[in-house]
Amino acid sequence: MTRRHKLTLARILAALALLVAAELAPLEGIWKLLLFLVPYFLVGGDVLWRSVINICHGQVFDENFLMSVATVGAMATGEYAEGVAVMLFYQVGELFQSVAVGKSRRSIAALMDIRPEYANVLRDGETLEVAPEDVLVGETIVLKPGERVPLDCVVTSGAGSIDTAAITGESAPRDVAVGDELVSGSINLSAVLEARVKSVYAESAVARILELVENSSERKAKTENFITKFARWYTPAVVFAALALALIPPLALGEPWMKWVHRALVFLVVSCPCALVISVPLSFFGGIGGASRRGILVKGSNYLEALSKVRAVVFDKTGTLTQGSFKVRALREAGGFRSEELLSLAAGAEAWSTHPIARAIVAAAGPAAQAREDAAPAQVEELAGLGVRAQVDGRTVLAGNARLMASEGIEVPETEEGGAVVHVACDGVYAGAILIADEPKPDAKDAVARLRAQGKRTVMLTGDRKASARAVAEELGVDDFMSDLMPQDKVAALEKLMDETPGGVAFVGDGINDAPVLTRADVGLAMGALGSDAAIEAADLVLMDDKPSRVPEAVAIARRTMTIVRENIVFALAVKLAILILGALGYANMWLAVFADVGVAVLAILNALRAMNTKKVAG
Amino acid sequence: MKKIFRLKDLDCANCAAKMERHIRKLDGVNDASVNFLTQKMTVDAEDARFEEIMDEVVRLCRKVEPDCVIVR
What we know:
The structure holds two protein chains of two kinds.
Chain A: H1 3-24, H2 29-56, H3 63-76, H4 80-111, E1 119-123, E2 126-130, E3 140-143, E4 153-157, E5 160-163, H5 165-168, E6 174-176, E7 181-182, E8 187-188, E9 193-197, H6 205-215, H7 222-253, H8 257-269, H9 274-293, E10 296-298, H10 301-309, E11 312-316, H11 317-321, E12 322-333, H12 339-350, H13 356-365, H14 367-374, E13 380-383, E14 387-392, E15 395-400, H15 402-407, E16 420-426, E17 429-440, H16 444-453, E18 457-461, H17 466-476, E19 480-482, H18 489-500, E20 505-509, H19 515-520, E21 523-527, H20 533-538, E22 541-543, H21 550-585, H22 590-610, H23 615-618
Chain B: E1 2-8, H1 13-25, E2 29-35, E3 40-45, H2 50-64, E4 69-71
Antiparallel strand pairs in B: 1-3, 1-4, 2-3
Helix pairs in contact in B: 1-2
């Protein structure tokens, strides 16, 4: 509570005491009114004053004015206690609302408290504490344990562990050593590190995240725009309805004036659309803030809304669902060779090659083969476009494609599996084949399964051949795949899917060469893309790390946020409508109305705050 | 020119929406937004008359929400 809040609270309590005293005082007529006017002006003086000022400014449908009319009306109809009490409750409600909004503003600010305050920069052998904005690219900064990494940098000395949770949402600390990159905003946990600055503060991860999230409320969701429009019409409509209610029954039916004026005053009390106007954007902002805590940056609430609606999620394969690096998938030994023998022969032949497939085979063969690298090279002959011929432990080993085997007159069985195949022969005898594939990311299968459980169709796009694409698609369990796509074909493939899918299509890519596809999709998600300006520009959501499981997480957060938004809209409108109907029929008095009005606003704000808590959703 | 201002004591979300609507209608203002949650106002207006336009903006905001102060 701020000082202003405390002052209001004191005024409310004093007015309450005076109200009780006035109610109990044995006075009649004008004296009684005067006695009630003391707490009335004490608690509602500012409201009355503001309404006078606002009328001078031509602001008729302002809530201060409406509350003033309602309470003055109550006093005029002889309901002194009610007039004071309504003003009192209104102020209590406003106080609650203000405290709740202040609290939510602070918790959202805390959520995004990743801004580094200073950097320890090493200049002329001295460590200086300066603002992160004043550090230049290439300077060396010192990171002490417990400090926030102020700028994106590369470790130049020391080793330790880093907590990147605030940036990537990854809760396990990451070990770093010389040569590793550090993302600004993460926290150095254990040791003193020195690092070379890679980019100025304005271009650092932290500055980008803050800019993205702070600007996100400018891109408003359809629901938000609807509420703003609705609010513009709601208040005048209710005020005119109140006027009609006060005038028509007495004039047309000869009903008593007092009764209907009093009912009309109930209308004025519920005419402020504040609950809706506050809670809907607050829910979206909470959702966006909470998502950023999980390493999911959302560029606007409209994208959160769109993501909750999409019916299909399209993935680019390489680098998104798969690692983008090769790995041995399977061994097909033949001719009496054992599988370990096959691998070790191939690794022996490929030990000196730098080709990614060769590296994958050597890595799979384990330390024994890796040790061979350090030994003096044996006789190795690289056969361009075919493979290698090498002497391994006194035997002649051939490793390469089917054409190499054919040129040596070695017969090769058909392999139906996808991916790259390395055939191996030893002293002229076929030893088997090694199947190489781009390894799926560990959580890719789970991510696809979760998206399917969320009712999304999953599609994989790839430039790979059909057989290879099918193998990956089946392993991951995606509903569909499109293969043999050149980068420029991907937009057309996506457009075809968008035509088939009425609810919208989300596209997930790494943003390196698929920026046009990201832009074209209803919602574009760029993965692990903080380094690439093009990807951030093109994408609507940016996933800070490269885990596909962040996609179903983002969908879950989007859906939950939308549920909370809908709850708030339905709840607030239902209560207001109920009060309007009860008020018109004479069942709701002003006390109930003011309780309902401010109560709904406070409850809606508290509900909106739930959107911020994304831990539960992510699981 | 686009400038961001901090708003103090912006307590009513409806007023924020009203301010935004009125500021956008001002002559010389290309775009404006009032963010109730971050308590920030972004005004994009003609360079030459920026200060003059801002005076008008301040006057407008005082009309809509007398308690709210624009930190310039």
